[in-house]
Amino acid sequence: MMKRKKTDQKKYITLNKTNVNAGLVSWYRTELTNLVNKMYKIYEKKILKLFKENKEQIKQIRYATDDNIGSQARILLNKLDRAYSEYYYNKGKKVSESMVEKTSKLLQTSFEVSFYSFLKKLDKKADGGVIAKVLSQFGPDIMSDKAKFVKAFSLKKKMFHQVATNLKKTMIMNNVELIKSIHQQFHREISQSVYDCIVNGRPQKELVSMIKSCGQKTTRRANLIATDQVNKTHSVLYRQELKQNGITKARWIHIGGGKKDRKTHIAKAPNGLNGAIFDLTKGIYDKAVNKFIQPAELAFCRCQAEPVLEV
Predict the structure, then answer these.
(1) Taking the CA atoms of the chain, what radius of gyration do you get in angstroms?
(2) Which stretch of DSSP H or E encloses residue 5?
(3) What is the distance between the alpha carbons of residues 211 and 173, in angstroms, rounded to a whole number?
(4) Of 112, 180, 260, 288, which has the fewest Cβ atoms less than 10 A away?
């Protein structure tokens, strides 16, 4: 649980980081995948029905610009767009709120257990300076009885909920916009495929293949968004949780497996970010993007913050 490391001649006590919950990531990916599948099946059913009813026109290129099939396609696609724009907003808001709240509850439960274990070991180490700094916020003799700690920590939870309210609203709003973009991009690509088939008189089997390809691409994008957004939500709320409990610094930990691992995130400090100590409020300077950033802030970044205390 506790170890000492040297960084820039300073000594740090390291707390175990609270990891992103894999079950939550899986749940959110399933929710967004289900959204895509439902949309895909309806679009496919409606569009193929239209093409089946007008297959003779589509076979003949001279009818490709005929207002009949073109108008029917536009009417159908506009109708689907309106229906799923509203559906994705409503469903997206509901599932986003659930994801953010689940992340917050899982994070606090895990952090409470980890933090109590850390403080117990810190207490046994009898490093008075650090003990005084960390434990003073909880009150005197807090580690003599776990019930006292739980009670004190519950007050911290209430404070966290108050402070984190705006953060949660922002995360929910961002997620809703991303979920809406899943439909928007799918609709745009499906529409292009439909008009391409009409204009060029392509057979129905080619349209089926195009729709399937678009559905698969959209599912992959939904999975990436789900994973990325759970990581980002966890990272934002975790930083707030740490600062709420008197921890202001962390060590950057590179986590691979993202869409694209960044060289500056892989490289070890001082040349890169991996292992570097940074301020949780300010973040750390990433020369690749010429600005201060936080773990998981950039698109598809899975890096994490490992909390530390300077001694």
Answers:
(1) 26
(2) strand 4-7
(3) 29
(4) 260
Is the CB of residue 109 less than 8 Å from the CB of residue 153?
no
Model confidence over 27-39: pLDDT tens digits?
Answer: 999 999 999 999 9
For the chain, helix (H) and strand (E) counts, in that order, are: 7, 7
Strands 4-7 and 10-14: antiparallel
Binning pLDDT at 50, 70 and 90, where does residue 134 land?
Answer: low
pLDDT score recorded for residue 64: 45
Residue 257 pairs in a beta bridge with none
Two tokens, residue 127: 């490093």
Question: CA torsion 9→10→16→20, rounded to 10°?
Answer: -80
Q: Do 204 and 51 meet the contact criterion of CB atoms below 8 Å apart?
A: yes
Quick one: DSSP state of residue 275? T
- The two three-digit tokens of residue 306, written as one number: 């490992």
101 SS3 class: helix
Q: How are strands ordered across the β-sheet holding 249-253?
A: 4-7, 10-14, 304-310, 249-253, 277-279
Q: What is the DSSP string of 15-58?
A: PPP-PPPHHHHHHHHHHHHHHHHHHHHHHHHHHHHHHHHTHHHH
**298/277 Cα distance (integer angstroms):** 18
Cα separation of 25 and 226, whole Å? 7
Residue 303: its pLDDT value, please?
A: 95
The upper half-sphere exposure of residue 251, i.e. CA atoms within 13 Å in the direction of its Cβ, equals: 25
pLDDT tens digits along 140-198: 666 667 776 777 777 677 777 777 888 999 999 999 999 999 999 999 999 999 999 88
First to last CA, the chain: 16
Q: What is the pLDDT of residues 206-247, one digit of tens each?
A: 999 999 999 999 999 999 999 999 999 999 999 998 988 888
